[in-house]
Structures are given as structure tokens and as C-alpha cells.
Design brief:
single chain; Rossmann fold; 11 strands; 7 helices; 11-stranded mixed beta sheet
Length: 266
């Protein structure tokens, strides 16, 4: 796959994060998997070239189950990205994780259905392992930056990924909580997994916007409007965290992420 030297770090924006950089070059990318959610917005943070894409489109017109995840991730690789950061709005499945907290996820549970979730369709056989999917170097850096900023950050967390667009029933939510899983969202899979398949380093940063409906009593049903409202209230913190992480990413990668495709080939 030919790559361009357009950016070193990619950022996917979710609900509430549709614009990230000013003074950008808009690059439209066509992929073997169809059109991505939007153009790549190429800008600079410190000395680092960054590619930003709103995963739902700049006007939030693409629902989670209809996102072309393969096209989006392929576009980041084509741009030359080595690391990809995926901030997202999530619900909490545990009482000690509260709205406004950040969770740096280290595991996921795939509860989706029908999504195209791999680039490998033969004839060469690959079996990438998601045992420790998220980049340890990026996770360590994000945790340190969050602590330095005074953010309440949970250093580990399991993301339950549901298909959407509907939210969970109380029964489903209680089940997820009973498993000991921590947060719930709709986009981390297959986005983060596909990033790793293409030898890039994935990082998930979850901003908690609500307690999920089966967790505590007398909470109103979650709505997309409320999710976006809480995310908007915390948008400055999200951006500052992202900017500081990107400014401090080391030039060289010393993780296993860059060898994923080689290590998974039969």
C-alpha cells in the first residue's frame, strides 16, 4: 500500500468533536473500501503533522452502524499516520466511573453485528491477535497527561461496543455491568482493531457522559442530545488532553503495534 507523507498522527472525532484543527488542508481520499466519512483535515500540532476526520461526518449524518470503518482507517494509513487516537463519548457501566471522568481503555468486548471488521480476506491468511490491542506507549502517555491536567482518569477499562443506533435496555445494561465491564459505546470496534491491523498504534480515550440505564436507579434514559451536551461541556478538556498527548508523542515507536501484520501472517 502506497502511503503519503501527509501526517504522522491521526485523530477520529466522535459525537461532539467535529472540528479539531484550524488552518487545515482538506484532503479527500478514495479508498478500495469506498468513501470515508469525510475528508482528512491536515494540520499541525507543535512539530507534528496531524490528520483529523469526524467519524460521523462533519454534520453528524452517519450513524455508528453505517460508518465505513475500513475506508476511514485505510485513509489514515494512506496519509502516513503511525498512531491513531480515538476519543469518544461513552456511558459508564460502573458506579465508581462518573460523568466527566476519562477512561483510557485497555480491552474491548464486541457486541456488534454485521460490521466489516477486517482488512484480511485472503488469499494470504492473517490472524491478528487483539489480546492487548491498545498501544501501551500511548496509553501510558495519555494517563500521565490526564493526571498532570488534574483530570479524574481511570487507567484501565473494558469497553462494551454495541451496534447502535439504539441504546441498551435496562436488562442489557445490567448484564454488561454484572460482567464487570466498565464503559459502553458504539464505535471503538472495529475502528481501533482495524487501526492495529494496519500496523498503526491505537489509543482510545473515553469521556464519560452518563451512567447507563441499568446501573443506578432513577436516572433518566440516555439521549443523544444529552450525550452531546455533556461532551460539549468537556470539549476544552478533551482538546487540551489530545493536543498535549500529541505534542509529547516520541518520534520512534518501541511497541509491538508496528509489527502486527507481519506477526499475524500464517
Amino acid at each position: 500500500m502506497e502511503t503519503k507523507n501527509l501526517a504522522k498522527v491521526g485523530v477520529f472525532g466522535g459525537s461532539g468533536l467535529y472540528k479539531f484543527l484550524d488552518d487545515v488542508q482538506e484532503v479527500r481520499v478514495e479508498t478500495p473500501y469506498g468513501m470515508p466519512s469525510d475528508s482528512l483535515m491536515i494540520g499541525t500540532i507543535g512539530n507534528t503533522k496531524v490528520a483529523f476526520m469526524p467519524r460521523h461526518g462533519r454534520n453528524h449524518t452517519i450513524l455508528p452502524h453505517l460508518i465505513n470503518y475500513r475506508a476511514n482507517v485505510w485513509a489514515m494509513k494512506y496519509a502516513g499516520c503511525e498512531r491513531v487516537i480515538s476519543p469518544c463519548a461513552c456511558g459508564s457501566l460502573q458506579k465508581h466511573i462518573n460523568p466527566g471522568d476519562f477512561v483510557i481503555c485497555d480491552q474491548f468486548v464486541d457486541w456488534t453485528d454485521g460490521r466489516k471488521s477486517t482488512f484480511y480476506e485472503g488469499p494470504v491468511v492473517h490472524h491478528p491477535s487483539p489480546t492487548d490491542l491498545y498501544c501501551p506507549e500511548l496509553r501510558e502517555l495519555a494517563i500521565k497527561v490526564a493526571k498532570d491536567m488534574g483530570i479524574t482518569v481511570h487507567e484501565t477499562g473494558t469497553m462494551t461496543v454495541i451496534n447502535g443506533p439504539r441504546f441498551s435496555t435496562k436488562a442489557e445494561s445490567k448484564f454488561f455491568t454484572a460482567q464487570g465491564w466498565d464503559v459502553i459505546g458504539m464505535t471503538a470496534f472495529p475502528e481501533n482493531y482495524l487501526v492495529r491491523e494496519l500496523d498503526m498504534c491505537p489509543l482510545n480515550i473515553s469521556l464519560i457522559t452518563d451512567h447507563d440505564c441499568g446501573l443506578v436507579g432513577d436516572v433518566p434514559p440516555v439521549s443523544h442530545h444529552e450525550v452531546c451536551k455533556v461532551f460539549e461541556q468537556n470539549l476544552d478538556r478533551v482538546k487540551k488532553l489530545l493536543f498535549t498527548v500529541i505534542e509529547n508523542i516520541p518520534e520512534e515507536r518501541n511497541c509491538a503495534c508496528k509489527n502486527t501484520s507481519k506477526d499475524s501472517q500464517m
